[in-house]
Amino acid sequence: MQKEKLRLIRKQKGYTQQQVADFIATDVSNYSRKESGDVRIVRDEWDKLARFLDVPIEDIYEEDESAVVINNDHPVFNDRSSSAGVITNQNNYDNIPGAIIENLQNYITLLKEENERLKKELKGLPDGKK
Fold first, then answer.
1. Separation CA 92–CA 87 (nearest Å)
2. Helices within the chain (DSSP H only)
3. How far is residue 45 CA from its own chain's centroid?
4. What do you get for the CA distance between the two ends of the chain, in Å?
5. Most exposed of 5, 14, 32, 51 (fewest Cβ within 10 Å)?
6. Phi, psi dihedral angles at 108 (to 5 degrees)
7. Distance (Å, whole) CA 43 – CA 41
8. What single DSSP character describes residue 42?
9. Radius of gyration over alpha carbons of the chain, in Å?
10. What is the pLDDT of residues 20-36, one digit of tens each?
11. 72-90 pLDDT, tens digit each
12. Chain-centre distance for alpha carbon 7
């Protein structure tokens, strides 16, 4: 369910989604999903949003009926085989919100890129400095 009250007050106050996302410490795409109702807004975030917009929570709060989409094709987070790791409980990852999984996937990609950059940097150093 879209958060129309939140969206309306944000726009009336002249704030962008980016500004609000920065205040609640999330990325703009995640905040956009929160505002559109695709991702749940937790109580602490409602408090922060009300403080940022300088309104009572009641002026922006709307019940959540979030629907989180999980990428069932991702090999790391959705591997159901018992050889995937020490944990063999088949339902172990079913309750992880899609936003968290996406965030972790993005972070892993970022770490891989940084690792490659550092490897290239190390290759360029003289032997005595490694």
1. 8
2. 4-12, 17-23, 28-35, 43-53, 57-60, 98-123
3. 13
4. 55
5. 14
6. -60, -45
7. 7
8. P
9. 20
10. 999 999 999 999 999 98
11. 555 555 444 444 444 444 4
12. 19
